[in-house]
Amino acid sequence: MINRFLIPVVAFVLLVVVLAIGIKHSPEKGIIASPLIGKPAPQFSLPSLADPAHAVSSAALRGRWYLLNVWGSWCGTCRDEHQMLLEVRRSGRVRLIGLDWRDDDGQARGYLQQLGDPYEFVAVDHDGRTAIDWGVYAAPESFLVSPAGIVVYKCMGELTPDIWQKQILPRLGQAQAAGS
Amino acid sequence: MRHAPAICLAAAGLALASAGTVRAVDTTQMPTPELQARYEGLTHELRCVQCQDEALADSPAGVAADLRREVREMLLAGKSDDDVRSFMLARYGDFVLFRPRFVLKNVWLWAAPEVLLVVGALVAWRVVRKRARLVSADTEPLPDDGSN
What we know:
The structure holds two protein chains of two kinds.
Chain A: H1 2-24, E1 45-47, E2 55-57, E3 66-71, H2 76-91, E4 95-101, H3 105-115, E5 121-125, H4 129-133, E6 141-145, E7 151-156, H5 161-179
Parallel strand pairs in A: 3-4, 4-5
Antiparallel strand pairs in A: 1-2, 3-6, 6-7
Chain B: H1 4-23, H2 33-45, H3 62-76, H4 81-92, H5 107-138
Helix pairs in contact in B: 2-3
């Protein structure tokens, strides 16, 4: 009798485990894991939002940690995380660089004037080519890049105080200790 | 009044036809039929990263239009279909491919149907054999009752 029920019971337990894992991960269904983590950050050279005649380039970012924040004045969640970005700027813990994605320059400048400008500089990506190189699919997205130019973390969606505390600060920790 | 059903049918047909026209998101025309076929093949097997259960070809999202432009430009520049797939893969990961790659971490996706088929066949074979044994046991001559 034991033999007869053993196999179906084991199969059932395995099925429960597989389904439980699926249910547990279901909130992450919409999140695409970035293949960029651990790889060199894509290079870019784009017009600056402050002065479109002037180009800003990723080459200038080597040697220190930076957070590349992909945003647009059309993006609602970007507005939600803006207060947090201003706090990141105030903290001075990491360089904050903006990538203005598929946006109108005038509207983007108006947005920063109205809400405050947290960025060291903003690169303008009108046609979305740089965003594609970074694997961007929905704003806002934030990439943490190490001084060696390696992408170490990607925050998909709103940058919350929780993510800042638990994901970003600990990764900066070592560099901060070494610098101070 | 007798024509009402026919008129209704015609109206429904018209509505369906116009819905079809509205749904054509991508109107890109490639210069040759071969390129057009490859373009349509690729944009149907690549997944839109924003509206995630649609193909690139069917998505009205801005980022899908940008990605279709990349496909078009790469094909016009003489790149192969695999070049386009690896370009997308390097940026968006396995997620963009509606047809998963045959690599170690995807092996279970490809192997699961075959494994289940073999397991099912084994179970069926065992059940059939058991039944057959029962039947054959049943048709064995009754023990000698001493009548002959």
